[in-house]
C-alpha cells in the first residue's frame, strides 16, 4: 500500500505522522514543494496546476491514495484532483476541525493564517456548523512561516500574539492551519485550560477508511520517500527539528507519544473513532 501526501511544506507532517502511527506498513510518499512555497499567496489556478502535477507524479510512483493535508490546496485543487483520480484512487482533503468544536456548544476561536481568517471558505464553515457568535476568527501572522523554518523565537512571538488576540471566554481553539499542530504544546501553554482541536488524526483515519484498511500500529514499517519539487531528497532539516519529523526521517514507526501532544491530550482521538471524527470536503 502506497499513500502520497501533497503539500508545499511541513504542514503535512502531523497527518503523515498519524498515518505512519496507524499503518506503518503503508509506504508514504511525501511530496513537498520548496521551489513553489508558500502556496497561500499564489493564485488558485497556479495551485491547481502544482497539485495536479504532484499527484500525477505520485500516481506514476504507484500511489493507491492521495492525501492533501493543506487547507489552501484542498480549497483550490480538491475538485479537479478528484475529477482526475477518482474513483480509481481515493483523494482525501483537509478542512479545519470547526464542526467538532462547534458541537461542544461553547465559544471557540479559530487560529489560522491572515488569508484563511478573512476567507469566505472559513466563514462558510463557521456559518454551516457554529451558532451565531460562537466562533471568533484569530489571525496569526507569521506563525506558519515560523513553524516552517523551525524558528523557536519567532514561534514563541507568534504564539504569544495569537494568545493575546484570543478572547478570554473561549473554551477551545481550532488549529486552522496544518502547521500549527507541530507547536501545539506551545499553543496549549499559552492558552491554559483551553481545549485544542485539530483534524490531522481524522484525515489519516479517513484515508484508511477510503482504502478499506483498519489500524495496525504493530505492522512492520515500509518506506518513507521524500520528493522536493519533484526530485527525491532528504526530509528538510526544519522538518527533522520536530519529533514527528525526526521519526519519519528515521524510517521506523511513529509512536503515539511523538504526535502533537497537546492536541492528543486535549482532544483524544481513538483508533476506533478517527475515521468519522471530522469531515473532509465532498466526503
Automatic annotation (TrEMBL):
EC numbers, comma separated: 5.1.1.3
Entry superkingdom: Bacteria
Molecular functions (GO terms): glutamate racemase activity
Record-linked SUPFAM superfamilies: Aspartate/glutamate racemase
GO BP annotation list: peptidoglycan biosynthetic process
Matching Pfam families: Asp_Glu_race
Keyword presence, Isomerase: yes
Keywords in alphabetical order: Isomerase
Name of the featured protein: Glutamate racemase
Source species of the chain: Actinomycetospora corticicola
Amino acid at each position: 500500500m502506497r499513500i502520497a501526501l501533497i503539500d508545499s511544506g511541513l504542514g503535512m507532517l502531523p497527518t503523515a505522522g498519524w498515518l505512519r502511527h496507524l499503518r506503518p506498513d503503508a509506504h508514504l510518499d511525501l511530496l513537498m514543494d520548496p521551489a513553489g512555497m508558500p502556496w497561500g499567496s499564489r493564485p488558485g489556478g497556479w495551485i491547481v496546476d502544482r497539485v495536479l502535477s504532484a499527484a500525477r507524479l505520485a500516481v506514476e510512483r504507484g500511489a493507491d491514495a492521495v492525501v492533501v493535508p493543506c487547507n489552501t490546496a484542498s480549497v483550490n485543487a480538491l475538485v479537479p484532483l478528484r475529477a482526475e483520480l477518482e474513483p480509481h484512487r481515493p483523494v482525501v482533503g483537509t478542512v479545519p476541525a470547526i464542526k467538532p468544536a462547534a458541537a461542544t456548544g461553547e465559544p471557540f476561536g479559530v487560529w489560522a493564517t491572515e488569508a484563511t481568517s478573512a476567507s469566505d471558505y472559513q466563514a462558510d464553515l463557521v456559518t454551516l456548523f457554529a451558532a451565531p457568535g460562537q466562533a471568533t476568527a484569530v489571525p496569526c501572522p507569521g506563525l506558519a512561516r515560523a513553524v516552517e523554518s523551525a524558528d523557536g523565537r519567532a514561534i514563541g512571538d507568534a504564539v504569544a500574539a495569537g494568545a493575546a488576540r484570543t478572547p478570554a471566554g473561549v473554551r477551545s481553539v481550532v488549529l486552522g492551519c496544518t502547521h500549527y499542530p507541530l507547536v501545539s504544546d506551545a499553543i496549549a501553554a499559552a492558552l491554559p485550560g483551553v481545549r485544542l482541536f485539530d483534524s490531522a488524526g481524522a484525515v489519516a483515519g479517513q484515508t484508511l477508511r477510503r482504502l478499506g484498511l483498519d489500524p495496525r500500529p504493530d505492522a512492520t514499517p515500509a518506506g518513507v520517500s521524500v520528493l522536493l519539487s519533484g526530485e527525491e531528497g532528504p526530509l528538510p532539516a526544519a522538518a527533522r527539528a520536530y519529533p514527528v519529523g525526526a521519526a519519519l526521517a528515521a524510517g521506523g514507526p511513529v509512536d503515539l507519544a511523538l504526535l502533537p501532544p497537546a492536541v492528543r491530550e486535549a482532544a483524544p482521538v481513538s483508533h476506533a473513532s478517527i475515521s468519522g471524527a471530522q469531515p473532509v470536503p465532498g466526503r
